[in-house]
Design goal:
- By secondary structure, the protein is of the alpha+beta class.
- The chain has a 5-stranded mixed β-sheet with strand order 4-3-12-7-8. Strands 5, 6, 9, 10 and 11 form a 5-stranded antiparallel β-sheet that branches.
- β3 and β4 form a beta hairpin.
- α1 packs parallel to α7.
Length: 527
């Protein structure tokens, strides 16, 4: 019975030791959150480690995360980091019960890892970024040492283990107090971090977009088909897709924002403020953007009305010439405030297309998630080589001299958007009634335009679909086909042809290295 009693005590103490580890880890993260408010929100350990994990994740894994988790991929990553830290904290607490200093040292080690991740990020502002992780780890290590000390029983002269009840009571009081205090500290840190973006929020609220000198042509009345379930011709900003690596959406004060233009072939380096851009002759254009991670039939494509300053004009003012006119630079490296780099062909930006530094989206200032105060938009190129959000720097260089972020991770240097089409309705695995069924969707081939769309039922012949009115060659185009549905299982397939006469290929490829290809199909049942 004596042995059984000791075993039960050991189990209880082991459980409380694990709890001590969790409380110590919780306190470390809470204190780190508070300290990050004095440094910058991006320096917090979860954000720093998460950003480092994203940077080191192979392209196929990132593609898997986007494909399966969509815009929740960052939330899933953060949950995974928290779950991992919780398990490690639990283990360190149990280890500390026998090796007290080792457990605390383990907490400190994770603080060092978090600090190293923070200072090694591309957007790091210096060694101060490591402070949140280090200060939090010190607090967590000390707290674990104290809590484990309260769990250690005294030994009688005969060697019998006799846990002191008052130590247990002190443990519960101390642990509970630490948990409550940590919650308060973490909440305060979160409030202060949220307030850090108040100036940015206020600056956006004060923006009044001027009337563009060159307005977009009115959207043709027939561009939006009246087919229930088809994508809206103009995608609302709130539902426009978002794919980036930012765990914390940058909030930039437009009144202090500046863009630097410099590098090879730049005869007159420029520094441009937000107000400078607003005072330029702005253009308004409807442009469809597409993410290279968009699978065949995927959702990462959207059409919006953009307002901005012509990028080519700014480059010419800086003395930049495209390669076709003897310019030494063939690549534009755009840098975001979060350290992201994108590489865009100089020739494409200066060939007459409506490449712009956008300040407005769908009639309003850009939202923060879509790049406020300024982002790049270049028709005809996948986003990873053109659509830099939160841009702050443009450097002229060459493809031989510099590989941008995604190129270092096995994506292609140049990536014009492939001709693609998608069935919006009917939905996959739908059950329909026999009779006339409207098949409809969208097709896109930015900067070339869509000339035709065809639909195939099962393995039958290709049938021409009816095209909606075309807005511009830089926007997607809706299409429809009236199908006389017969009972049974069916597959519907679509393909598009662009204005160059190229029909999208049947060959299925993944998104890496330069975008997916293949025909989109939908399987359904007709009763």
């Amino acid at each position: 019975m004596k042995t059984l009693r000791v075993t039960r005590q050991g189990l209880v103490r082991g459980g409380l030791a694990g709890l001590s580890g969790l409380i110590a880890g919780y306190a470390a993260l809470a204190v780190a959150e508070l300290v990050s408010a004095a440094v910058r929100p991006e320096a917090g350990p979860i954000n720093a480690v998460g950003g480092a994990a994203i940077d080191r994740t192979p392209a196929p894994v990132k593609d898997f995360a986007i494909r399966h988790f969509g815009e929740d991929d960052k939330f899933v990553l953060q949950l995974g980091i928290l779950a991992t830290l919780s398990v490690l904290a639990l283990v360190l607490g149990i280890v500390a019960l026998r090796f007290r200093r080792v457990g605390s040292a383990g907490v400190l080690l994770f603080g060092v890892v978090g600090a190293a991740a923070a200072v090694s990020r591309p957007d790091s502002t210096g060694i101060a970024d490591g402070l949140p992780s280090l200060v939090g780890a010190v607090v967590g290590a000390v707290l674990l040492y104290v809590l484990i000390g309260l769990l250690r029983p005294s030994e009688a002269a005969d060697g019998d283990v006799r846990g002191e009840p008052w130590n247990r009571r002190r443990f519960l009081v101390t642990a509970s107090s630490a948990a409550v205090a940590s919650t308060g500290v973490g909440a305060l840190g979160r409030v202060l971090n949220d307030r850090a973006g108040e100036n940015a929020v206020a600056s956006r609220a004060d923006v009044v977009l001027p009337q563009p000198a060159s307005k977009a042509a009115p959207i043709p009345p027939g561009a939006q088909l009246r087919v229930p379930g088809i994508s809206s011709f103009i995608t609302p900003s709130k539902t426009f897709y978002r794919v980036d690596t930012a765990l914390v959406v940058p909030k930039i004060d437009a009144t202090t924002w500046k863009l630097r233009i410099h590098g090879k072939g730049v005869q007159r380096p420029l520094s441009v403020t937000f107000q400078d851009l607003l005072e330029r002759e702005l253009i308004e254009r409807d442009i469809t953007l597409t993410c290279v991670s968009n699978e065949v039939g995927g959702p990462y494509v959207g059409n919006a009305s953009w307002i901005g300053a012509r990028l080519a004009d700014l480059l010419r003012e800086a003395g930049v010439k495209p390669p076709s006119r003897g310019g030494p630079a063939n690549q534009i490296i755009s840098r975001s405030v979060d350290g992201m780099t994108l590489g865009t062909p100089v020739e494409d930006v200066m060939d007459g297309r409506d490449a712009m530094l956008a300040v407005g989206m769908n009639g309003e200032p850009l939202t923060f998630v879509h790049g406020f105060p300024v982002r790049m938009v270049v028709p005809g190129l996948y986003g990873y080589v053109s659509a830099c959000k939160w841009i702050e720097d443009i450097e002229l260089t060459t493809f031989d001299d510099y590989d941008a972020y995604w190129v270092k991770r096995d994506w292609a240097r140049e990536a014009p958007i492939k001709t693609q089409s998608r069935i919006d309705v009917p939905k996959p695995f739908a059950r329909l009634q026999a009779g006339t069924v409207m098949i409809a969707g969208v097709a896109w081939a930015q900067h070339r335009g869509i000339e035709g769309v065809e639909v195939r039922i099962d393995e039958g012949p290709w049938q021409p679909a009816e095209l909606a009115a075309q807005d511009t060659i830089d926007t997607w185009r809706q299409w429809s086909y009236a199908w006389k549905a017969t009972p049974g299982g069916h597959s519907l397939t679509v393909r598009a042809t662009d204005s160059t006469g190229e029909t999208q290929t049947e060959k299925r490829t993944g998104t890496v290295p330069n975008g997916a290809s293949g025909w989109h199909s939908v399987v359904l049942t007709v009763d």
